[in-house]
Amino acid sequence: MSGTFEQTIFHKIVAGEIPADKVYETDEVLGFKDIHPKAPTHILFIAKKEEDFVPSIADLTEQTVQVPGKLIRAAQEFAAQKGIDGYKLTFNVGAGGGQEVFYLHLHLMSQTELS
Ligand code: AMP
């Protein structure tokens, strides 16, 4: 990493330093179960590549503007694969917006339980 930002728990998950219950993975995106689920299905999607690292939607630049789209595309693909037909997608932005981990992540929450 560049060293500009403190390492977060999600950096450690990407690096394999701490475990996560992974449910989706491509070259660019990782999806894993939220450790404190707020819905029967609650998945977090994060970008894996260093150049795609951004702490929050509030920090997006021209270089990283495509990252949220990659996360949304991953969530869409995951939901289709799992037959989840209705879900909420959320980015919490900043401490005032409920963001606790400053490594951009997309929440997918659904009342449909994973089979
Ligand atoms: P946010 O509040 O948007 O920053 O969301 C952070 C989410 O990360 C919360 O819903 C936490 O429950 C979740 N979380 C924190 N640590 C872990 C972990 N080690 N594995 C999975 N989810 C985590």
Features:
115 residues, alpha+beta, 2 helices, globular, binds adenosine monophosphate
Describe the protein's architecture and organization:
- It is a single chain.
- With about 120 residues, this protein is of the alpha+beta class.
- The chain contains two helices and five strands.
- Strands 1-2-3-5-4 form a five-stranded antiparallel beta sheet, with helices on one face.
- The longest helix has 16 residues.
- The model has no long low-confidence stretch (mean pLDDT about 95).
- The structure holds adenosine monophosphate.
- Adenosine monophosphate binds next to loops.
What layout of secondary structure does this protein have?
Blueprint lengths: L8 H6 L7 E4 L3 E5 L7 E7 L19 H16 L5 E3 L15 E5 L5
Antiparallel strand pairs: 1-2, 2-3, 3-5, 4-5
The site of adenosine monophosphate has 12 residues, from loops.
Sum this structure up briefly:
The chain is of the alpha+beta class. The chain contains two helices and five strands.
Oligomeric status of the shown chains?
Answer: single chain
Structural class by SSE content: alpha+beta
Helical residue percent band = 10-25%
- Number of DSSP strand runs: 5
